[in-house]
Amino acid sequence: MAKIPVTRAPELLPKLHLQTSALFELGGDVYVYDTVLTDIGIAASGSNCTVKFYDHNTLQEKSKVTYHSDQITQIQARENSFQSCSLDGQVAIWDLRQSLTASPALTFRSQDPVLSFDISSDDRLLASGSRLDEGYHVARMHFWDVRAAGSQPMHTFENSHSDDITQIHFNKHDGSQMLSGSTDGLLCTYNVNETDEDEALLFVANTGASLAHCGYFGPESQFIYAHSDMETLQLWTDDASLLADFGDVRTIGESGIPVDYMAAFRYCPSEQRLYMAAGTNGGDLHLLHVGAGSLEHVEVLAAGHAGIVRGFTWDLDGGWAVSGGEDGRLSLWTRQEPPKPVQPFASSSGSNSGSGSGSAFKSESTPRTRFSPY
After folding, report:
1. In the predicted model, what is the mean pLDDT of residues 77-88?
2. DSSP assignment string, 59-99
3. Where is this region: Disordered (predicted)?
4. The dihedral sign for the CA sequence 369, 370, 373, 374
5. Cα(119)–Cα(33) distance, rounded to whole angstroms?
6. What are phi and psi of 371, to 5 degrees?
């Protein structure tokens, strides 16, 4: 595959500066798995089956919950609530208007380890994706009525995927549409108004690689990004038409941007742009705009971590971000210059892990355009 075109575009976003860092667990070898903004601050899930909540301005710990008995695989937040799922087979929902306790307000239990979940935009339907049941050779999606916590799933899909279901996403602009992604390499979209799986399945796209992350983007959530665990990136329409195939994103190292993995994607509605955070094993994060078959390097967040970054919560309009990594550390980034020097971590990613010199990028001879379909 041809080399991915990469240009430098630092003017796309205001620069972020490292403000402060905090350890998730003192004296413990605990990873930070994921981060998300809630109504009461930043929630971070750890490899010790604990979720902690932090002030998003200071990273001061505010509270924590320890409920799940196995690895927490995903966390989310909605207005007044926080949700988590786990290999213990549960999806749990906490009401943030009440004091956090060890027990969630609502729980939904399945017979399968849960890898992914989402709740529909009208808060009525919850869907979960399971690990492959090797005994029956099926991976299941269970659907619950959110208003009937503790009940059995209303229905189950088990024929769409043949391996772990790593991603579930409801379309925020079309409440009847849902997306799933799996390590079998398939992206599937559904009409969730249908309870029969064959009738519900709308489109199937074969990405050719085991999917780690996928999600909707675009003004009407009509596009899909697909990131594989081989660090390949593709863009699709929601009717399974391939728009762009970037191949292995790690090849942009040839342009002077060292990248070992993709960490997170964020769509900015006001700019109608898709952004990607891609990291190095040494802990740096490169922020890039994902265009139509090309990438634009915006900036690098350096010295906040000494290992792989797993969680990245990014408020594009607010101008701040929080990252969490395998070094057990959370780091806060804002547009403001730090009032005093922050003690950085030594990066092991080499001399190219900084912002890069201008000569490492192609010069721009024509104005940039947004991703062509929107």
Report:
1. 97
2. --EEEEE---SS-EEEEEEETTEEEEEETTSEEEEEETTS-
3. 330-374
4. negative
5. 21
6. -55, 125
> Dihedrals φ, ψ of 100, to 5°?
-70, 130
| CA–CA distance, 47 with 72 (Å, rounded to integer) | 7
Structural domains in the chain? 29-267+311-323 (2.130.10.10)
pLDDT range class, residue 338, cuts 50, 70, 90: confident
For residue 2, the model assigns a pLDDT of: 57
pLDDT in tens, 35-59: 999 999 999 999 999 999 999 999 9
Return d(Cα 110, Cα 152) in angstroms, integer. Answer: 8
Place of tokens 């403001």: 336
Give me the pLDDT at residue 8, please.
Answer: 95
Q: Of 24, 42, 44, which is closest to residue 34 (Cα–Cα)?
A: 44
- Report d(CA 130, CA 2) in Å as an integer: 36
Instruction: Name the β-bridge partners of 297.
Output: 8, 288
Q: State pLDDT tens for residues 100-148.
A: 887 899 999 999 999 999 999 999 999 999 999 999 899 999 999 998 8
